[in-house]
Specification:
Blueprint lengths: L8 E5 L4 H12 L3 E6 L2 H13 L3 E6 L5 H15 L4 E4 L16 H28 L3 E6 L13 H21 L4 E8 L5 H7 L2 H8 L10 H12 L10 E4 L12
Parallel strand pairs: 1-2, 1-4, 2-3, 4-5, 5-6, 6-7
Helix pairs in contact: 1-2, 1-8, 3-4, 4-5
The protein binds nicotinamide-adenine-dinucleotide (NAD).
């Protein structure tokens, strides 16, 4: 398929739902061959099948990003099936309901969020960067969040800490690998209409509290974040590296939001 990612191979963690799934569809429709690496392999296979039906190329593999061996297998699968790896989209993430304030978040919840959201990105880069170098360079997109830049209005200390870590780590990777043809950017979405946020927003007070801070007055749709990821993945962003790439409906620009 010809397109903005023609000839490229992309690995997308968490590619079976939400932002990852929309990105997998969009990347494939722009000519990429896509490897979906997700804990939920049934949903990953369903996404790959939908992509194939639309004329694209994708495969799914079961992967827990908290385990380096799973990511190693995912990178190996991308190279084995599609010949190389050019785009590494470390997108998988969790937002557990028990993540709260520093005083009431259980230690095991903090550890779990860091293991998936932060260490998962570290491990993805650890096994993905050698593959990108083998391909002669590439693009890393690490999903952080607007809460890496401003404090969240609701308690979610582990999530916020994990995303701050992703942002800082991404900048360092960008600097270190800039002369070896690898770009690395932190994609920082505002609140997005996906299953990750659904449980949280089901609670009316939390929903109202969140919406009041969004100048646009609405959530993003996953496709709107996928389009930003497509730009970062493609050669159109060839001079963009180390960026805090905010796609947040204006949240981080606001002091007060309009009524
Ligand atoms: P989602 O829940 O719709 O999808 C996440 C996917 O990740 C799921 O398919 C899930 O199975 C997979 N996953 C979870 N844990 C995994 C693990 N250990 N290993 C592999 N796969 C795993 O979520 P989403 O909203 O699309 O979120 C994608 C990314 O965007 C996350 O990093 C999230 O933190 C970030 N983000 C989301 C929002 C939002 O409001 N939805 C805002 C900012 C950032």
């Amino acid at each position: 398929m010809a397109g903005r990612l023609s000839g490229k191979v992309a690995l997308i963690t968490g590619g079976a739902s939400g932002i990852g799934r929309e990105s997998a569809r969009l990347f494939a429709s722009e000519g990429a061959r896509v490897l979906i690496a997700d804990l939920d392999v049934a949903a990953g296979n369903a996404t790959a099948a939908a992509i194939a039906k639309a004329g694209g190329e994708a495969r799914a593999i079961r992967c827990d990003v908290a385990h380096g061996a799973d990511l190693e297998a995912a990178v190996a699968a991308a190279e084995r099936h599609f010949g190389a790896l050019h785009v590494l989209f470390n997108n998988a993430g969790i937002f557990p309901a028990r993540d709260g304030s520093p005083v009431d978040t259980p230690d095991d919840v903090f550890d779990q969020v860091i293991a998936v959201n932060l260490k998962g990105v570290f491990l993805g880069c650890k096994v993905g960067i050698p593959a990108l170098l083998r391909a002669g360079g590439g693009s890393i997109i690490n999903t952080a969040s607007f809460v890496a830049v401003v404090g969240a209005a609701t308690s979610q200390i582990a999530y916020t800490a994990s995303k701050g870590g992703v942002l800082a780590m991404t900048r360092e990777i960008a600097v270190e690998y800039a002369r070896q043809g690898i770009r690395a950017n932190a994609l920082c979405p505002g609140p997005v209409n996906t299953p990750l946020l659904a449980e949280f927003l089901a609670e009316p007070a939390a929903r109202a509290r969140r919406f009041v801070h969004i100048p646009m007055g609405r959530l993003a749709e996953a496709t709107e974040i996928a389009r930003a990821a497509l730009f970062l993945a493609s050669d159109e962003s060839s001079y963009v590296t180390g960026a805090t790439f905010l796609v947040d409906g204006g949240i981080t620009s606001a002091y007060v939001t309009p009524e």
